[in-house]
């Protein structure tokens, strides 16, 4: 009889699971052939707004690119590492033979560079042939035409006035190694992308998750950025495991 009561109690608790907790469970987002597991702080269409931040919105670009805006510029999202708070992104504008005119601009209150990456310094639009500047990339791509760049992985190299543009191109350390040994071309290293770390949830989200909760976003108080959804309701700042059950059993 007691067992039956406890079973009934447990099943009623499971079915009365907090709706925000239930609705914010990790979600497999599909964009053509590309799939990505979506959890806090990311937001996608088809999921409630209380699961993620408006600024960490991902969308699908046909046929199979998952995109995000970082400081107003769009990037392709390749992977998400929820443990280390990193997204691997590719700047599609750097593929092919672009006019390199802008540095990547990542750092903000939402994002930072990853210390796992390296910057390649790329010199473009050069008047003289600056042999000591680095390796030459002679690239071509249809309408964009043919361009010549020089890149170096060394730091503190300056082209002086010989080149009109100097830009820092972040890349994964592994890709930079591949570039240095000739295993990868410059274009391949750039196409491998780089990592960006996100700030949301830093310092509290892992505590929430470790207590059995799911991190969330409270649009009525967006500055309180430590919203933890638990099976039984909102936790602050973590879920108290099994409290309900103990209370009921007493
Ligand atoms: C990019 O950043 C480097 C280093 O800060 C700087 O020397 C260069 O002028 C910048 N390039 C552009 C196009 O702003
Ligand atoms: C790459 O350049 C950016 C912008 O100047 C800088 O903030 C970042 O720390 C650099 N990354 C590395 C690994 O040096
Ligand atoms: C560099 O810029 C100047 C001024 O825009 C231009 O006249 C020159 O042709 C450019 N150099 C190269 C190599 O494109
Ligand atoms: C780049 O490659 C093209 C075709 O292979 C060649 O005609 C051109 O001279 C090269 N440019 C440089 C600066 O080597
Ligand atoms: C979260 O809140 C902390 C402390 O109030 C603040 O420093 C941080 O910038 C906030 N992060 C975001 C993504 O809003
Ligand atoms: C959202 O914030 C409001 C105002 O601080 C608070 O009353 C409410 O309980 C919060 N909602 C959740 C789900 O945490």
Any overview of this molecule?
The chain has helices at residues 2-15, 19-23, 173-181, 186-191, 205-210, 243-249; strands at residues 27-31, 34-38, 58-61, 65-70, 73-81, 86-90, 111-113, 117-126, 135-141, 145-152, 163-172, 194-198, 214-216, 227-230, 233-235. The protein is built from 6 helices and 15 strands. The strands form 4 sheets. Strands 3-4-5-6-12-7 form a 6-stranded antiparallel beta sheet, with no helix packed on it. A 4-stranded antiparallel beta sheet has the order 9-10-8-11. By secondary structure, the chain is of the alpha+beta class. The model is unreliable at 1-12 and 243-250 (pLDDT under 50). The chain starts with a helix and ends with a helix. One 2-acetamido-2-deoxy-beta-D-glucopyranose binds next to loops. Residues 125-127, 164 line the site of one 2-acetamido-2-deoxy-beta-D-glucopyranose (NAG).
């Amino acid at each position: 009889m007691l067992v039956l009561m406890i079973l009934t109690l447990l099943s009623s608790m499971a079915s009365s699971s907090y709706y925000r907790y239930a609705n914010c469970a990790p979600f497999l987002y599909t964009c053509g052939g590309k799939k990505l597991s979506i959890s806090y702080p990311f937001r996608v269409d088809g999921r409630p707004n209380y699961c993620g931040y408006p600024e960490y919105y991902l969308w699908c670009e046909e046929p199979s690119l998952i995109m995000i805006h970082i400081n107003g510029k769009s990037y392709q999202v390749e992977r998400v590492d929820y443990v280390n708070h990193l997204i691997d992104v590719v700047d599609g504008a750097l593929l092919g033979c672009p006019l390199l005119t802008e540095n990547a601009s990542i750092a903000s209150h939402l994002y930072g560079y990853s210390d796992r990456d390296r910057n390649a310094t790329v010199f473009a639009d050069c008047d003289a042939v600056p042999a000591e500047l680095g390796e030459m990339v002679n690239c071509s791509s249809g309408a964009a035409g043919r361009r010549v760049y020089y890149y170096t992985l060394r730091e503190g190299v300056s082209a002086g006035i010989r080149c009109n543009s100097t830009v820092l191109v972040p890349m994964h350390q592994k890709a930079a190694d591949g570039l240095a040994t000739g295993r990868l071309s410059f274009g391949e290293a750039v196409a491998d992308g780089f990592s960006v770390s996100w700030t949301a949830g830093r310092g509290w989200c892992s505590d929430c998750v470790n207590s059995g909760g799911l991190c969330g976003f409270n649009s009525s108080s967006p500055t309180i950025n430590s919203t933890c959804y638990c099976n039984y309701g909102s936790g602050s700042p973590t879920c108290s495991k099994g409290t309900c059950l103990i209370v009921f059993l007493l």
